[in-house]
């Protein structure tokens, strides 16, 4: 929601989301500038929350200075998680070793503050699993925009992670993801927009926004033979629990 693409109609977007019963919105940071913006929005709107983190694309930004700033920002009660953090070996916009170091440092930060993490993972299953396993279940969080296989999903759940599906689950060609969604219990599942990206099939081509989230719930309902309400209720409960939102 902190994207410039919402500057002209942010109030309306939030209203439209409410109309679709998408009430609490967690805006996820990916670089320092973006984290500030997410927090600013969370201060402005009662139902909005923020996370702070340096995305693997921007891993070189995670300096001692940035960490100092993060520690200060974490005093704000509306900051509910560390993320997006992780590894992206698909686009490799930062060197692998830098990505790994930034990931580990931010996982430790989350442990220190007893906060969940939001993990971004592209083509990096093995390294992600190895690194989070080293934290011996002291870390909890979310596998965001899940795109791995069922084996990875199960291992993540064993370590205390939730599996989060975004708009790409609604794409007809995403059969592998459909299979994973069928096998993951709703108790271990979240839904998200990844807005402004990954617009659900029905709205494809447009900017993605929070009011389109029910399309993801609908798809999961179809795949798992559950009602949309059941999917919506359970995934909201899971989200509130992991982010500690009242
Ligand atoms: Zn991501």
Shape: globular
Number of strands: 7
Query: Helix/strand/pairing class, anyone?
Result: alpha/beta
What is the number of helical segments per DSSP (H or I, 4+ residues)? 9
Describe this structure in words.
This protein has 246 residues and is α/β, with parallel strands linked by helices. The protein has nine helices and seven strands; from the N terminus they run αβαβαβαβαβαβαβαα. A seven-stranded parallel sheet has the order 1-2-3-4-5-6-7, sandwiched between helices. Helix 5 links the parallel strand 4 and strand 5. The longest helix has 17 residues, at 96-112. The chain is globular and about 45 Å long. It starts with 9 loop residues before the first helix and ends with a helix. Residues 84, 120, 144-145 line the site of zinc ion.
């Amino acid at each position: 929601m902190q994207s410039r693409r919402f500057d002209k109609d942010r109030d309306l977007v939030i209203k439209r989301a409410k109309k679709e019963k998408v009430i609490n919105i967690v805006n996820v940071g990916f670089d320092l500038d973006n984290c500030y913006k997410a927090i600013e929005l969370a201060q402005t709107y009662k139902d909005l929350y923020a996370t702070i983190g340096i995305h693997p694309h921007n891993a070189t930004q995670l300096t001692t200075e940035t960490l100092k700033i993060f520690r200060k920002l974490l005093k704000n009660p509306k900051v509910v998680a560390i993320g997006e953090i992780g590894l992206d070996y698909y686009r490799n916009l930062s060197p692998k070793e830098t990505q790994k170091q930034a990931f580990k440092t931010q996982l430790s930060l989350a442990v220190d503050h007893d906060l969940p993490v939001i993990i971004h993972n592209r083509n990096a299953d093995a390294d992600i699993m190895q690194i989070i396993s080293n934290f011996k279940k002291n870390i909890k969080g979310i596998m965001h925009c899940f795109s791995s296989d069922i084996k990875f999903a199960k291992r993540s759940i064993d370590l205390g992670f939730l599996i989060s599906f975004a708009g790409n689950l609604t794409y007809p060609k995403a059969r592998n993801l459909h299979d994973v969604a069928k096998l993951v219990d709703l108790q271990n599942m979240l839904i998200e927009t990844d807005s402004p990206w990954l617009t659900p099939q029905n709205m494809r081509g447009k900017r993605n926004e929070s009011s389109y989230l029910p399309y993801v719930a609908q798809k999961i309902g179809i795949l798992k033979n559950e009602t949309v309400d059941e999917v919506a209720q359970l995934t909201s409960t899971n989200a509130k629990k992991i982010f500690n939102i009242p």
